[in-house]
Amino acid sequence: MSRRGIVALLSAAALALPLAATSATTAHAAAPAFNVLVFSRTTGYRHASIPDGIAAIEKLGQEHGFAVDATEDATRFNDADLAKYQAVVFLSTTGDPLDQQSEKDAFQRYIEHGGGFVGIHAAADSGYTWAWYGGLVGAYFRDHPAIQQATVNVVGQGTAATKGLPNRWTRTDEWYNYRSDPRPDVRVLATLDERTYNPVGYSGGSMGADHPISWCHPYDGGRSFYTGMGHTSESYTDPLFLSHILGGIEMTAGAARFNCDPESTG
């Protein structure tokens, strides 16, 4: 080969190298930071906002670099499938969404091995006969009053789930009363000011001066975050609520600090 031919080949190879390197960098940058499974099966009341919630979490994943799968197939709760995810979101599940013992056992093993759980709204209206799940969520739903505006006191400062939220947060939602106070087993992140709305549920009564509505805690080897907000479709276009959900996902997935010990203050 002539000297001119050799120079031409070397020049072509040199030009190809940056293109190859750029392609590899792009592929690396596109890799998701972590994977999330959104589970929304219901065997009781079904919230009309579920599709809005799925779409909102998928959009959060696109914007913040994590992958989202959505399912209502309870058979996905097996060791092999769950191992693909750093967090599992129960989005307004109701009744007994995992109705096979093998599914429950697999999910329990997932948490025991360090998995993350995010419960949104009616996740607390699920699994009433499964005491382990009740402990994971933190409290079971009891009743609620009519949908109305109320003021939320954001008390768990210094977490990803409360970052950017006002200390006094006024919003409209369906405000749950719970069968028990999750304290002292959780770190409460937000409470309801019952003076700002009619808190009496359909079974009569409310929770009183201390009314947790969002919390997080380590549980049985894993990480748990729950918020009672999220009944309305409008919630899933509310930037503050979406920030709250995003922080909970990142905390439970291990992508943000999980400062959720019940005694934690920052």
From TrEMBL:
Which part of the chain is the ThuA-like domain? 35-250
Q: Which SUPFAM superfamilies did the record assign? A: Class I glutamine amidotransferase-like
- The answer to keyword Ribosomal protein applying to this record is no
Entry keywords, A to Z: Signal
Record flagged with keyword Transferase: no
- PANTHER family in UniProt: GALACTOSE-BINDING DOMAIN-LIKE SUPERFAMILY PROTEIN, SECRETED GLYCOSYL HYDROLASE
What is the name listed in the Swiss-Prot or TrEMBL entry for this protein?
Answer: ThuA domain-containing protein
